[in-house]
Structure formats: structure tokens, C-alpha cells
Amino acid sequence: MPTLHPVHLVGAGPGDPELLTLKAVRVIREATVILVDDLVGEQVLASVLDGVATPPRLVQVGKRGGCASTPQAFIERLLVREALAGEKVVRLKGGDPLVFGRAGEEIAALRDAGIEVRVVNGITAGLAAVNALGTGWTDRRCAQGVLLVTGHAQPGHPGPDWDAIGAAAASGITLVVYMGVVQAPRIVDGLLRRLPADWPAAVVQGASGASERCGWSTLGELPAMLQREGFGSPAVLVIGRVLEASALAQARALVTPPAARTAG
Catalytic site residue 225? Predict the structure, then answer.
């Protein structure tokens, strides 16, 4: 009977390979099979696996909101099958596995099959996004908390209550919206029931990666700005007064690609 190894759910971070944890690097290099999400940057695997004597088998199991995706049930069956065959399995996810990564479903499937699961956290895209904007999730002067929310509703599900979320934002909560570009008009329409149209808003596409770019707006103008400037996935929307804590003098740096910022 094959030796059963724990399955690791690993966060690959938002894109910059240097943002991986030491533990993530070790686990990836020890793997024999890696199930790779669509949002994992190519540079991440290329960097981590460089020099590995026997590279792992890579299985692409892409998942991206609004696009054709590998069925979740298939991914879970594959995780169980490879683990029961004695493989050292890594499920590699963009950002952090526990933030909109369906980790709960995969953990349950593996535990039901008698397989141990270990999670290796990664930096979530929402954190890299506010870093790119020169601010944070919170600021004691204007933002006492943060709400991470998905803009992608499941079929047949009403999705988040944007009216209630707007009320939370008005009380001093920063909104960090994942997978919200396509649904931005609907999201903004709901938030405007509780927030003024001039409420600060921004978008970060490809946070921490070579193609990172940022856009600043007001809440009322956000959908038009996203369309006009051609922002698309993967992107994170940031909405809240915390954006005002970012010095306007940083604006030039914010729109410069990370590589150029480093070189300067």
C-alpha cells in the first residue's frame, strides 16, 4: 500500500515570486504533483522549481471568475486520487488558499477520504493591492476595519448585500472587492444607496506582478473609469476613506511598473 503524504494547500501570493513564504518554497520543491490554479504567475513556478533535480508533474486546473473553469468536483477527485497513489500533492492557489479559494470544499473532500491536509498561507491579492496604492487596509484616522468581499455571485445566488456593505463602509470600513470588475456597475449601484458618489475608489490589476497598474476614481465614476482604461481580471477594487491617507505625491510611483520602481 502506498505511503500517504499530507496534501498541502499552498498560497502562491499575488504574483511576485519573492513574496512566497520560505515554507511555500520548500513544500513546492518537495512535491511530486502540483495542481496549479490559473491565477498562479508563471514566474512563481519557474523561480521556485529552478534547479530541482526531478521536477514535479504540473496539472493545470484553471479557475477564474466569469470564465470556463475546471469543475470543482473534478479537482477534488483528482486531489484524492493522487494522494491515495502516494504522491506528494500540492494544490497551488493564487494569493492565499483561505481567501475565496474554495479551500473549505477541498479540505472536506480530502478529510473524508482519510487524507491529512495542511495549509500554507500566502499574501492575498487584496493586501498587495493596497500596498500598490500606497496605503493599507486600515488607518486609525479614517478606517477602523476591512471587509473582504467577492463581486462574483454563484449562479442562482443573490450575492452580497451591497446596500448593507455600503452602510459598513460609511462607518469606517475599507472595502476590498475581489472579482468585481465585470460586476462593477451593479456593485456601485448598491453602494451608492449608502455612500456619496465622491467616495474614494481605486482599482489594482495584477498586483505585485510585472504588469501591475493602478487606477484612481470616485465611487460614482468607477464603472466608467474601468471601462475607459480597459481594466480587467485579475483585479481588486478598493473603496474607502483609507485611500485619502495615501499621499498624492506618490501618484507617479503608483502607475510605474514594479520593475521600474525597483530599478529607480
Answer: no
pLDDT of residue 68: 59
Active site residue 161: no
Determine which one of 16, 37, 96, 139 is catalytic.
37
In the set 16, 63, 88, 96, the catalytic residue is: 63
Q: Is 179 a catalytic residue?
A: yes
Residue from 16, 139, 179, 189 carrying the catalytic annotation: 179
Per the CB < 8 A criterion, the answer to whether 122 and 12 are in contact is yes
* Contact call for residues 149 and 169 (beta carbons, < 8 A): no
Grid coordinates in use for 258?
514594479
| C-alpha to C-alpha distance for 65 and 152, rounded to whole angstroms | 7
Q: With a cut of 70, which residues of the chain have pLDDT below it?
A: 63-68, 246-264
Burial category of 43 from C-beta neighbours within 10 Å (exposed 0-12, middle 13-18, buried 19 and up)? middle
pLDDT at position 64, please?
54
| pTM check: above 0.85 | yes
